[in-house]
Amino acid sequence: MAQELEVSERPLPWQLAIWQRLLTNYQRQHLAHALLINGVAGIGKVQLALAFSQRLLCLAPDSDFACGQCKSCKLFSSGNHPNFIHVKPEEEGKAIVIQQVRALNEFAHKKAQFEGYRIILISPAEAMNLSSANALLKTLEEPGSKTLLMLVSHLSGKLLATIKSRCQAVDCREPSVEQALDWLSVHDYDRTLAESSLVMSEGAPLKALHILGQGLIETRHQVVADLLSLRSKSVGVVEVAARWNKAADLSEILHWLISVSVDLAKLKVHQEARNRDLISVLEEASAGLQVNSCFQFHDQLMEVRRLLLSTANPNRQMLIESLLFDWVALP
Ligand SMILES: [Zn+2]
């Protein structure tokens, strides 16, 4: 995600129950030496891990949270705490490589510079390739004393069973819609826009914030309006494909369109559409299509997404163009 939240010493409002549980375990000295913090992307798992790390390292915590003022907290906020490392891919979407895991193994076994914990955060853990994951196993089995590993995962199904079985699971869920809207309202977004962003993010508030910050609601409206214009031939395929290609990430556009294609089919059989903010355009588009065409469009979108994921360097413009030529021709 391009937009990162300011790191806070507090967990997000919907994480308080998990926070209390972790803290109680810590205070009773029952904290496992490895935690697997898992849940869908965009709900604040990394923030939770960071805030908890800071709390454990803080030299003068009030009862629940890090103080934010002590030497340790200052080092932590500036990203320079010697007892903490955050291992992540060097570029988004790339793997966590074995050299990075070797460095963390070394860190886990050297003497701590400060009293207290040594903390290793790995995110996302599924970015470890097979050799990295294997290299981590030894440290997971025998971490140094007072060492805490936190693995954050959006897709824990992709992790090796041998990794998962050595971690205590911390399952995170998205907040209720009301809780998410309250949180988004603090960032001064209009409620209707915030509601749309939550539909788009499937309830993940941090992803919704990213959508709002990047103006992606407007882009999505334009993308869906383009679908209608293409059907009425008031705009050409090549022109639209070029515009989409510039406007947003293709995988993001596909994600929206897959949701839209489901709605088109639902409207054909008089079910309620999910993308309520697009309803008038969706009704018009659906009326001009046969029900089978809605399914066909959906299947084509899934196929384009598969190609996008499987090919190292797909030609985005061509992928979009071929999708749209088929769309225009649907009966
Ligand atoms: Zn502190």
Helix/strand layout:
Layout: H1 16-27, E1 34-38, H2 45-57, H3 71-77, E2 84-87, H4 98-109, E3 118-122, H5 130-141, E4 147-153, H6 161-164, E5 168-171, H7 177-186, H8 191-200, H9 205-213, H10 216-231, H11 237-247, H12 250-268, H13 279-287, H14 291-310, H15 316-329
Parallel strand pairs: 1-4, 1-5, 2-3, 3-4
Zinc ion (ZN) binds next to α3.
Q: Based on the coordinates given, report the CATH architecture of the largest domain.
A: 3-Layer(aba) Sandwich
Following the backbone from N to C, one meets helices and strands in this order, namely: HEHHEHEHEHEHHHHHHHHH
Q: Which word captures the global form?
A: elongated
The main β sheet shows up as: 5 strands, parallel
Small ligands present: zinc ion
| Overall average pLDDT | 91
- From the 3D structure, determine the CATH topology of the largest domain: Rossmann fold
Work out the oligomeric state of the chains in this entry: single chain
Low-confidence stretches: 1-5
Q: What percent of residues adopt helix (DSSP H or I)? A: 40-55%
What is the CATH first-level class name of the largest domain?
Alpha Beta
Give me the count of strands.
5
User: In the CATH hierarchy, what is the superfamily of the largest domain?
Assistant: P-loop containing nucleotide triphosphate hydrolases
The fraction of residues assigned to DSSP E strands is 5-15%
How many structural domains in the coordinates?
3
> What distance separates the N and C termini?
38 Å
> Largest sheet, order of strands side by side?
2-3-4-1-5
Total helical elements? 15
**Radius of gyration over all CA atoms, rounded:** 23 Å
Helix and strand content put the structural class at: alpha/beta
